[in-house]
Amino acid sequence: MDAPLWTPxxxxxxxxxxxxxxxxxxQQWDVDASTYDALYRFSIERPAEFxxxxxxxxxxxxxxxxxxxxxxxxxxxxxxFPDARLNFAENLLRGTGDxxxxxxxxxGLAPKTLSWAGLRAEVAVFAAALRAxxxxxGDRVAAFLPNxxxxxxxxxxxxxxxxxWSSCSPDFGVTGVLDRFGQIEPRILITADGYLYGGKSHxxxxxxxxxxxxxxxxERVVVVPYVNSALNLEGxxxxxxxxxxxxxxxxxxxxxxxxxFDHPLYILYSSGTTGIPKCIVHGAGGTLIQHLKEHxxxxxxHPGDRVFYFTxxxxxxxxxxxxxxxxxxxxxxxxxxxxxxxxHVLFDLADAHGMTLFGTSAKFIDALNKADVAPIDTHRxxxxxxxxxxxxxxxxxxxxxxxxxxxxxxxxxxxxxxTDIVSCFxxxxxxxxxxxxEIQGRALGMKVEVFDDDGRPLPPGAKGELVCTMPFPxxxxxxxxxxxxxxxxxAYFDTWPGVWRHGDYVELTSxxxxxxxxxxxxxxxxxxxRIGTAEIYRQVEQLDEVLESLVIGQxxxxxxxxxxxxxLRDDMTLSPELEDLIRRQIRASTTPRHVPARIVQVPEIPxxxxxxxxxxxxxxxxxxxxxxxxxxxxxxSALEHFRDRPELSG
Length: 650
Known about the structure:
Elements: H1 10-15, H2 17-29, H3 36-45, H4 47-58, E1 62-63, E2 69-70, E3 79-80, E4 85-86, H5 88-92, E5 100-106, E6 112-115, H6 116-132, E7 140-144, H7 149-160, E8 164-168, H8 174-184, E9 188-192, E10 194-197, E11 200-203, H9 205-213, E12 220-224, E13 239-241, H10 242-246, E14 259-260, E15 264-269, E16 279-283, H11 284-298, E17 306-309, H12 316-322, E18 330-335, H13 345-353, E19 357-361, H14 362-370, H15 375-378, E20 386-390, H16 396-406, E21 411-414, E22 416-418, E23 423-427, E24 441-442, E25 448-451, E26 463-468, E27 478-479, H17 486-492, E28 500-508, E29 514-519, H18 533-540, E30 546-556, E31 559-568, H19 576-589, E32 598-601, H20 615-622
Parallel strand pairs: 5-18, 7-8, 7-9, 9-12, 12-13, 17-18, 17-19, 19-20, 20-21, 31-32
Antiparallel strand pairs: 1-4, 2-3, 4-14, 5-6, 10-11, 15-16, 16-27, 22-23, 23-24, 25-26, 26-28, 28-29, 30-31
Helix pairs in contact: 2-4, 3-4, 4-11, 6-7, 8-9
């Protein structure tokens, strides 16, 4: 394409926080930061100055100390702000007054608002109750909660006292919860009585009771009444209602433990589709400063903005969302289905509450397109300035959909990183153009490169492994129960010592943008030609007949052949004519190597709890290998549709 899909107006560029930061850097360090490329070069060539400027510009509350980074040549091993002292929750509770800190809407429920003063008061009460329970810095608190305000209150209270927060969404099964919380030995478990989804109320207490009986370290279970007014807690050992847990602590002053930059804040979990999930420990300072950078500079979040992400407590985007409080922006929470009663519900939310950033997934955008939803015709969306997408690669056609059928004057920021870094390697540039099918650029301070199989940097236009060749603040503090760091090192640094290998198959474009072709461990290799799975999805899912698809490489005749699974619209059957149409669509826009040797219809595609398709699990099923952790999947029974398929036996 010769022209960008969107270019910010001069007035918008002038108002951007990124522009203000560029001027701050130029004045402070007497360097050229007049363009994004120049600012990016400064951020990776002079990282100590860059991260010091982020701390100052974003107004981090705390003592910075004398040094911004030491041992920068060690990866892992570098330490950012080694002398600093701060508290994560204190930074998020800087807002004051009766303005909204949180606006919450549950499926089918009336909205609720919690002011800045109210949020601070509730955090103070819950923190006091935790201290009264004897919790100390470093103790773990686990949450099995829907996306409700109490989750934010509890997480901030845990951070205020220096304890460690970890969460799962209530759609996890008991085994999935125990695979995670069983490793970290929490002292407190917080649960709701249930959650709302698809027009139904789903119980959580029965599962919570099973979980607690297998977690001997849990001393108290705090229950939030959400879907039922009358609760029976007899089946949950050690259970007490939220209000009873906090009774007697109202009016207690809120105090914040001043902790090191790397003090553990969160324990997040890998997807767990290849074994027991890894427990990834993230530090308070690294999480805070990285999120402040991404929110203010890459997403242009200002004080008073209203920021939404469609997420659950089982996805790192919830943690990312909560930190917008540190920019004095309002958090919009939604609990429920994004398609109940129809595909308009989140856009209704945007109009009702003045949403400024609409955060979602590539799957949601594609589903809207397939459902023929056109918010540009039905909603104002006048306050929405930014839409972010993550979770999987955003196809070029989805860019077309957003600008054609959602909103024309919109910063569409496709972003990508992961639970591993609780942030992004690549993302948006609110002062730059959006090109069809491209992530706008490498994130500031992240020395992202593309390597070939031999560890050599590749030029723009060549496909290879996404790597990061310089330390950054939100690298994990480590993995839980990994005292010598072996598991941590094996996860990211075994391939190329001193280089973070992220596992994405990507291309850096001539414009400095990035295209992600899928996970590198799922890359197809027919006849020795490497093909990213997203290259095939992009073509197949343009067809109206196909709702979604999944592609794998099947070992066959001492080579690998491409096998495509498709879920079709209701009442449609995969005919020879449709197979031919799919193959022609793929061949016309890619290469003959991309064309699948077999196309198989399935009624359901298996996904993780955060909505990502699980190519590796399907590949294992097709090859007769066990899937190590089915509990990581939102719909594990879907794997049976791929087992012993006669279409794949010849």
